[in-house]
């Protein structure tokens, strides 16, 4: 029952090719732990061990896509067909889609006809939609069944369905009529009728809905599984809570990386395994954009070159003032991006939030202005201190308003608000800050 | 079945106090939708409607903590006791903990003794641990039961348990021996023995484990529920997948806000409802710290004041060069914080990752250096272009290394790596960038 030491013992047994010891340990371990242990091995060794495992399909399904693909190339067509046949339909589709076209063509004839057709159909749904993450293996019942018949029916269907804890009631046209949980079935009198007990106020999603919306619905309504229907209201699949959890963590990851100007798209970046050129590509775009963004700040400075030459002390405070606007702005942007992503905030709240933000930013600006005023007086004089106070308040206020508004504007333009990344907001706020600071300085300080 | 229009109709009916229409609509809606509709109303109106609802406990449990607290003050002690008695044990504990001490004292005598003792026990676990999110209402079986007996037993216990899809087998000392799913029970021959069929390779957590680790285990092993045991290996509760999803999204939210230097701790910030002073407090700390951080850049500039006065063109490129280091650094830090949070990367990988990062950063630096070299030549001369090239490569390289290392160092010091927020990394990289840029300039450019 102590998982961690078992994994170490397994890795050791595998490294020494002690198959007997490995098999004993493998029996006690969870599939994902076995998968990770095998992934440490050369693909030639693990392909031999994999086929000996009773849980081979689950272990294979739990592996990373890259390792799966390397194994798929090595396994015989019959072995690969055996494994993917044993997998749940949604995982099977993922593996199939990751294969090279020539391998796909080779695999298909080795599958039973029903699986083959199911696989073709599931593989057609566009990535990122409900269809691409749903499984076609769900339990259905008829409204006219008695509870006893329904439980018997599930007993026979169970080995194939992804879950029997939620069953869906459909009519002859595959129209979704209701759902009933195994919990309800167990508690109900055996001679009652499924149709009388089923819930009809069902939460569902359409097959072309965004996968993120599917995950949100499952989390919001605490569902075990969400039925997926087509536009004719026919049941075509279900998405289970465990897949929804994966989607939610993938989306959170993407938003997080975007916030730092790293392009993120599935499959998620793995720092250890992603090729270096991929990492470079995902980061270079925003960095170069921001180089040109920073030129705006440079242009602001160039415009005010003479006031800087007359008061070189201004340069001392430049990074501080400009940075503060960027920091306050990226705070606002992050708060807003999160609020939009979690659905706490919708577009019509914008004016209310802007008003609140101005008050908070004003308080922040005044606090920070007090902190720098003293420094300005020490390094410069009272006039420099005044320039700093006014600039700081203005910069923090305007930076916050920019940070708060940018995600809204992007959302309005149907762009991902998470693209209002910290670096983008920072570079816009920087340029604005330079202009505010030097404008105020030009008004108040002497010029040669 | 069309949820969204129903919610609008409900809000309308409620606003006109059309109780008949509202009741019809309420019957068809999910608890969380009803909760949100009621939250739009003054607490006086919703308290009246709430008590009429058959699903009142579920609706109350789905409300935000602040609204729950206001309702709790308004409801009679008997009504509140009725509602919390009908709630699941974990939700009941959350409500109880949010009450003022005087209200807690008033509520306890109104509860049945068993609930009262259970509540006291659950409320004692520290926030953030498995104990604080677990429920004490789980289904247990004995190893010696037959399958038929077990299913009968669950039928009787079901109304109280949070889930009957996983049952836990314990001995007289409450020691956890195994688990069995309802799926297995349904499929098994009725005269078989629970002890013979139960799984003994159970994934579990300790009651004082971090709630984040609990959520990760549930996601990793695709569990419906995770048993929680004390240090004597006695079963004390379970955490279900839906609570794990809430924890995971809360933790992702916190990390996200920390990345922008916003202090985040449960309960999660709600931009619309959090008092303004709270928002101010959560943001001001890092902003003021960063003001002083930026002073480092200022000091760097002060040290090189004469080279700047001699070559005022350097100021034009200052925001660009310094910003690029900060941007590259915050990208690296974000990638690393995420990799540590998702467990993709562990401490011993540091040297490998640092090597990879240097190569990527070098490539990024060279790309960006080419972009600015042209500008340097146009605005200055060949020497200025050379200064820019060397500075850009050095700044991006060192910025990336800082961004990559800081989360590791924080982790090593047992601090939260997510505190290596973009603003913190940016301000350290900024100061380093200033020094690198002006040092190189001082070597290569003429000084008056």
UniProtKB/TrEMBL annotation, chains A, B:
Its main location: membrane. One of its GO terms (molecular function) is metal ion binding. GO terms for cellular component: plasma membrane. The chain crosses the membrane at residues 284-304, 311-330, 350-378, 385-410, 422-445. PROSITE patterns: CBS. InterPro entries: CBS_dom (IPR000644), CBS_dom_sf (IPR046342), Mg_transptr_MgtE_intracell_dom (IPR006668), MgtE_N_sf (IPR038076), MgtE_transporter (IPR006669), SLC41_membr_dom (IPR006667), SLC41_membr_dom_sf (IPR036739). The keyword Transmembrane helix applies. It is found in: Cell membrane; Membrane. The keyword Transmembrane applies. Keywords: CBS domain, Cell membrane, Magnesium, Membrane, Metal-binding, Transmembrane, Transmembrane helix, Transport. It holds the Pfam family MgtE_N. Residues 134-197, 198-256 form the CBS domain. It is a multi-pass membrane protein. Coiled coil: none annotated. Belongs to the SLC41A transporter family. Acts as a magnesium transporter. Homodimer. PANTHER family: MAGNESIUM TRANSPORTER MGTE (PTHR43773:SF1). NCBIfam families: mgtE (TIGR00400). This is Magnesium transporter MgtE. It comes from Acinetobacter soli.
């Amino acid at each position: 029952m102590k998982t961690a030491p078992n994994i170490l013992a397994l890795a050791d047994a595998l490294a020494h090719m002690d198959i007997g010891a490995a098999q004993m340990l493998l029996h006690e371990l969870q599939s994902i732990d076995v998968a990770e242990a095998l992934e440490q091995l050369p693909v030639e060794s693990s392909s031999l061990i994999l086929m000996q495992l009773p849980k081979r399909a689950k272990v294979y399904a739990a592996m990373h896509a890259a390792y799966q693909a390397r194994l798929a190339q090595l396994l015989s067509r019959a072995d690969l067909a055996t494994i993917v046949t044993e997998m749940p339909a949604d995982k099977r589709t993922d593996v199939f889609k990751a294969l090279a076209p020539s391998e796909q063509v080779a695999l298909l004839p080795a599958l039973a006809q029903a699986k083959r057709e199911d696989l073709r159909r599931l593989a057609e749904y566009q990535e990122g939609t409900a269809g691409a993450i749903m499984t076609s293996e769900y339990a259905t019942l008829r409204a006219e069944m008695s509870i006893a018949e329904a439980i018997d029916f599930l007993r026979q269907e169970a080995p194939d369905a992804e879950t029997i804890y939620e069953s869906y009631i459909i009519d002859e046209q595959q129209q979704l009529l209701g759902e009933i949980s195994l919990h309800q079935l167990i508690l109900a009198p055996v001679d009652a009728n499924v149709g009388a007990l089923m819930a009809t106020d069902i939460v569902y999603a359409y097959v072309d809905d965004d996968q993120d919306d599917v995950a949100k619905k499952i989390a919001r309504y605490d569902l075990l599984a969400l039925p997926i229907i087509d536009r004719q209201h026919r049941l075509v699949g279900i998405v289970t809570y465990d897949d929804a959890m994966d989607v939610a963590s993938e989306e959170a990851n993407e938003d997080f990386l975007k916030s730092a100007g790293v392009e993120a798209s599935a499959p998620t970046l793995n720092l250890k395994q992603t090729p270096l050129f991929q990492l470079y590509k995902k980061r270079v775009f925003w960095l170069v954009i921001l180089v040109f963004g920073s030129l705006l700040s440079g242009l602001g400075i160039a415009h005010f070159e003479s006031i800087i030459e007359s008061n070189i002390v201004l340069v001392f405070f430049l990074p501080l003032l400009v940075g503060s606007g960027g920091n306050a702005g990226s705070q606002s942007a992050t708060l807003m991006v999160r609020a939009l992503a979690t659905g706490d905030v919708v577009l019509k709240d914008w004016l209310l939030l802007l008003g609140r933000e101005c008050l908070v930013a004003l308080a922040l600006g005044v606090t920070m202005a007090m902190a720098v005023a003293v420094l300005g007086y020490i390094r410069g004089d009272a006039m420099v201190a005044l320039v700093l106070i006014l600039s700081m308040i203005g910069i923090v206020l305007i930076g916050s308003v920019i940070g708060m508004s940018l995600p809204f504007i992007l959302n309005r333009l149907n762009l991902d608000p998470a693209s209002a990344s910290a670096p983008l907001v920072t570079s816009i706020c920087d340029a604005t800050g330079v202009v505010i600071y030097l404008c105020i300085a030009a008004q108040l300080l002497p010029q040669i």
